[in-house]
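Hi Y.,

Following your request, here is the sequence exactly as I used it, all 170 residues.
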Amino acid sequence: MHPPLDLPLLRKFSIRFFPKEWEEHDPLVMFNNVPPLHEVLIGEVLPSLVSLPWQQITKFTGACYTVSECLQALRLMSNHVEWAFSAYELDDEADGLKVFSHSNMQHLTLLDIPLNFGNRDYSAHILRFLTLPALRLLEIQGVVDLEPLLLREFLLRPSPPVIKTPRAPI
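Below is the corresponding structure, written out as tokens. Let me know if you'd prefer a different format.
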């Protein structure tokens, strides 16, 4: 294993795909010194498997997670204000999850990213588990099977009014 890099000017980081056997190892440490890092895009890699300064991340995009993995990622980043993700599976673990409140998130984007292995999109189901008191913008992009009751229950939870909820055409 190589020593972590010092990248004091790194502002944005993107990584996709690790082989499944990586999950048996400790988190990957790639950087030591990344003070301006604030934006991360991770696909098909659990955020818990990448050692980053999660508390300073303010914008996160994640793709190809289960609903419970999305919530796990959200808990790592208590200071972020913008979050976009795609969930492909409503896993068994999701049934036992409690509603999670994130006090800083202002912008949430639910994505439907077409997957090669034919799984349904479950991104909107994360709304069952979230309360977002600072939310100002909710974007729903390409999520075709959004249940109106699910959205209504989310919006009725103790949260401020959402300023804008654009929805991509179906």
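The chain has two helices and twelve strands.

Thanks again,
Q.
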